[in-house]
Design goal:
With 251 residues, this protein is of the alpha/beta class. 40% of the residues lie in helices and 28% in strands. The protein has one domain: 3-Layer(aba) Sandwich (Rossmann fold), CATH 3.40.50.300. The longest helix has 15 residues. The structure holds adenosine-5'-diphosphate and magnesium ion (2 copies). This is FeS assembly ATPase SufC.
C-alpha cells in the first residue's frame, strides 16, 4: 500500500527527515515510536502533503501512485487520513456540515453524485454510535467546546465516516483517560479490515495492548533505526530509547 524510500524532508529550512525507509502493506498496523523531536509528526505531515514540509529527496508510492505528486486534498480522497496530535476548532462550521462537505468532496472526486440528505444522516448516526459520540455534537462547531477526550473520539468518528484506506494516528491517545483511550482504540479496531492499514504514533504500552500492531518502528533523528514486532514497543516501555540510540550510533 505505502512504500517510503529514502525520504528526506525539511521544515523551515532545517533537515528533519534524513532517509526514512518504510513499507506498509494492506491490512497492517504499524506503530511508530521515537523520542520527542525525532520527526514522527514531520513524517505524518509529509504523507498528507502539508505545504510547510518540503521533501528534498526520496519517494513515496501509495497504491502504486506517486503520492508526492498529488495535491493534499487528492491524497485524502485517495484514502489517506490523518488524525492530529492537537485537533483544531472550526467554530461556526457544524460537525454535520463539515462531514457532509468532506464526504461529498470525495464522491465528486470519484465522479459520484452527492449523498442524499437521508442517507448521509443515516451514515452519521451509524458511525456516531460506533464511537459513542452523542448526537448533540453534530450540531456544534467542529471541536468547539469539545473536551480533549471528545476531540479524540471525534477524530475516530471522522475516520469512521470517511473510511480511509490508510490512517495516520498521531498521538491520538495523548491526554486521554483510560476509558477514552479504550473507546478510541476499540473504535479504531472496529474500522480495521484486510484492505486498510495504519501508522499509529504512540508512547503508550496500553495502546500496544489494544492495537496488537504487526510492526513497531523506532524513529531517531529522522531515520528508522530499528523495526520489530510489538515486543519492541514493550522493550522500549521498559528500557527507554537510550539503548536503541546507542546501537544505532555504532552502525
Ligand atoms: P516528533 O513528532 O517526533 O516529536 P516533530 O516531527 O514534531 O517530532 O519535530 C521534529 C523537529 O522538527 C523538531 O525539531 C521540531 O521543532 C521541528 N518542526 C516540526 N514541525 C515544525 C514546524 N511546523 N515549524 C518548525 N519546526 C518544526
Ligand atoms: Mg512530539
Ligand atoms: Mg509529534
Amino acid at each position: 500500500m505505502l512504500e517510503i524510500k529514502n525520504l528526506h524532508a525539511k521544515v523551515e529550512g532545517k533537515a528533519i527527515l534524513k532517509g526514512v525507509d518504510l513499507t506498509i502493506n494492506d491490512g497492517e498496523v504499524h506503530v511508530l515510536m521515537g523520542p520527542n523531536g525525532s520527526g514522527k509528526s514531520t513524517l505524518s505531515n509529509v504523507l498528507v502533503g502539508n505545504p510547510k514540509y518540503e521533501v528534498t529527496e526520496g519517494s513515496i508510492s501509495f497504491n502504486g501512485k506517486d503520492l508526492l505528486a498529488m495535491k493534499p486534498e487528492d491524497r485524502a480522497h485517495e484514502g489517506i487520513f490523518m488524525s492530529f496530535q492537537a485537533p483544531t476548532e472550526i467554530p461556526g462550521v457544524s460537525m454535520t456540515n463539515f462531514m457532509r462537505a468532506a464526504v461529498n468532496a470525495k464522491r465528486t472526486y470519484f465522479g459520484q453524485e452527492p449523498m442524499s440528505a437521508s442517507d448521509f444522516l443515516k451514515l452519521l448516526r451509524e458511525k456516531r454510535k460506533l464511537v459513542g459520540l452523542d448526537a448533540h455534537f453534530m450540531g456544534r462547531g467542529v471541536n468547539e467546546g469539545f473536551s480533549g477526550g471528545e476531540r479524540k473520539r471525534n477524530e475516530i468518528f471522522q475516520m469512521a465516516v470517511l473510511e480511509p484506506t490508510f490512517s495516520i494516528l498521531d498521538e491520538t491517545d495523548s491526554g486521554l483517560d483510560v476509558d477514552a483511550l479504550r473507546i478510541v482504540a476499540e473504535g479504531f479496531n472496529q474500522l480495521r479490515t484486510e484492505k486498510t492499514s495504519a501508522m499509529v504514533i504512540t508512547h503508550y504500552q496500553r495502546m500496544l495492548d489494544y492495537l496488537k500492531p504487526d510492526f513497531v518502528h523506532v524513529l531517531v533523528n529522522g531515520r528508522v533505526v530499528r523495526s520489530g514486532s510489538a515486543q519492541l514497543g514493550y522493550d522500549i516501555e521498559e528500557k527507554g530509547f537510550e539503548w536503541i540510540i546507542e546501537e544505532a550510533e555504532k552502525q
